[in-house]
Amino acid sequence: MFRIKKLDIFIARQFLLLLVATFFVCQFVLMMQFLWRYVDTLIGKGLSMEVLAKFFWYMSLILMPQAFPLAILLASLITFGNLGESSELTAIKAAGISLMKAFRPLIVITVGIMMMSFYFQNVVAPNADNSFTQLLLSMKQKSPEMEIPEGIFYDGIPQTNIYVQKKDMRTGMLYGMMIYRLSGSYEDAAIIVADSGMIQSTAEKKHLVLTLYNGEWFENMRSQDVAGGAAVPYRRETFTQKKLVLDFDADFSLADASALANNARGKSLSHIRHDVDSLKQEFDSIGHQYYQDVKRTFFHNVPIEKKDSLRAAKMAATKAFNIDSVFSRLSPEDKQRTMARAVQAAQSGLNDLEFKQLVTSDGDRLIRVHNIEAINKFTLSLSCLIFFFIGAPLGAIIRKGGLGIPVIVSVLVFIVYYIFDNTGYRMSRNGMWAIWFGKGISTAVLAPLAVFFTYKANNDSVVFNLDLYRNFFMKLLGLRLKRHVFAKEVIIYDPHYEEDARKLAVISDEVTHYAHEHKLVSPPNIIKVFFKYEPDHEIERIVPELEDVIDDLSNVNLNKRLHSKEKKKILTELNHYPVVSVKAHTRPFERRWLNILAAVVLPVGICLYIRMWSFRLRLYRDLKTIKQTNGEIIAAIKSMGYGTSNDGDAATSTIYNKV
User: Residue 181 belongs to what H/E stretch?
Assistant: First the structure.
């Protein structure tokens, strides 16, 4: 039965305090990053504090579900980093409490936050997103003098179209202006051309004052003022400076929200499901109608005369119909008209198909966006739990609190998550990836990482030992380190030269016999490798004996001048010994069922077989190097006078003579 203990309260209190602080920090960072997209919309619009407060409030509600996972990651990292740094985590484990039991209260809190995140995404965030988008549209219409683009006509002012060739954002001057004023019909339009100008709002925000410099005014007088069918009078005016007052109510008002009907982010899960069904039904009917149109166009709309159709039917029945022969019998004028009609029909059909493709592709994209948002509500909530099982174990492993290393690790993890999630979203939205794959790729990448870190932290395993990973990959790729034996400054005991020489002579005979018996140059037996494996105990015995001799001879004392030349030679030759792998040449894996599985999966088995053969060849070269190096070291030991004393050791002399 689950009972709340003092330790649970202690860990939960630390976590919650850090969670609140990190949540506001993460929320602030996300809001600042989000705010940069709308700086141009906010600046210079004369918005009231109430409108700005609504803008930031809706923004904070939208970004809360994204701030939850990052805050949990950072808070869990700092919490267990502080516990590890102050040795409290060591005391917890010494008391017999496992790491998973220490995680237990925080798991409950994280699951609660995960449910809260789903509630925000399904209930709060959609309403906030609709209100935010509606507010944003209205803010863009607040001061149109800031929205006039360069190079295109702007129709945001009632009954007026303005073209600006260049705009100076610093001074507010507009250059190369052309204005169409539509006071009535198009026949009564006034055209104004000016070298430069400036547009400003009046104090009461009811009008716009347009100041123009060095221009001309072209205008037709009102046609209703002219009697009968007389010509419409025409007026032209040249000016150096002119001011126009345009009616424009710039008071802030919310824009019409009918344009937000297809905003998938502003819908709950049930609303998305309902709209997806409606969209599928609508675009399925459109696609079916397009299909019927294509059938009628290309199969039932071929105008030919009755006699020609009878002739074509008879020729088709006898399988002698050839369109080239029919076309060749036409006159040159008929051929030209036929080709022109064919090209026109093909171009018309192509244009029609391109338009229909545009309609259907927009429908498919809209359906995909709705499905992506539905899945996103679950994946973003699940990321809270995944980030906890990344942050808490990492904190227990790193054992560094504060805002140093935890912030760096959190940023790196979140960047990886953001890259995969954003890439999956864009690829799914454009139809390049399946929706479930695009939205699940970030979870699929981080979930194994969370399991790995949790397993390592729970078993007190080493995670950030770079040498361990380097040795693993070098072993996997068949690489190995070069032996480095250096002269020691402090020598506890001198080497046993005579005994080491005897051992090296025996090892030389053994490696010669081993290489001849196992036929290392020839390819290995496939049956013995994958199905009837027998361990190679002989080489497993020889290599450790050789390493013992190398370790003993590495104690040569170069400080003593006696036999210094021979000692240096021994030390040099020790570095020529290869680092021998004793198992890689025997079988791919330790477990038999893995070897059988590798043999069944043919491409994998072939690669492993070739890799093992290369290890056998390398072992053959290593044994030759060992035998040659043994001879050099034995010769150096012999020149030092060991084994040739008056005691007349016949066995040792025999070994030397063999070498």
Answer: strand 174-181
Among candidate residues 102, 60, 82, 121, the one with its CA nearest the CA of residue 384:
121
Q: How many Å from the N-terminal Cα to the C-terminal Cα in the chain? A: 75
Q: What is the DSSP letter of 247?
A: E
Burial (CB count <10 Å: 0-12, 13-18, 19+), residue 514: middle
The DSSP bridge partners found for residue 241 are 213
Sequence-distant (≥ 6) Cβ neighbours of residue 531 within 8 angstroms: 595, 596, 599
8 residue type, one letter: D
| Contact criterion met (CB below 8 Å) for 201 and 145 | yes
b/e sequence 578-598, b meaning 16+ C-beta within 10 Å: bebbbebbbbbeeeeeebeeb
Strand, helix or coil for residue 492 = coil
Dist. CA 614–CA 588, nearest whole Å: 12
Give me the amino acid identity at 83: L
Work out the burial of residue 484: count CB atoms within 10 Å of its CB; fewer than 13 is exposed, 13-18 middle, 19 or more buried: exposed
Amino acid in position 538: E
Nearest-angstrom CA–CA distance, 525 and 599: 13
3-class DSSP state of 152? coil
Backbone phi, psi, residue 174, to 5°: -115, 135
Rounded to whole angstroms, the Cα distance separating 537 from 541 reads 6
The upper half-sphere exposure of residue 58, i.e. CA atoms within 13 Å in the direction of its Cβ, equals 17
Counting other chains too, the contacts that 428-433 makes at CB distance below 8 Å and 24 or more residues apart are 428/368, 428/372, 429/365, 429/368, 429/369, 429/372, 430/365, 431/364, 431/365, 431/368
Q: Which of 264, 262, 271, 257 is nearest to 133 (CA)?
A: 257
CA distance 395 to 412: 14
Tell me the mean pLDDT per 10 residues along the chain, length 659. Answer: 78 93 92 81 68 89 93 92 88 87 92 94 90 77 62 77 83 85 65 88 72 86 51 75 75 51 84 88 82 66 48 52 74 86 82 79 87 93 94 87 78 89 90 90 92 87 65 68 79 85 91 86 78 77 90 82 81 88 75 76 78 85 91 89 49 40
> Please, where are the H alpha helices in 431-496?
435-458, 466-476
Q: Which helix (H) or strand (E) holds 351?
A: helix 332-398
Taking alpha carbons only, the member of 502, 640, 518 closest to residue 570 is 640
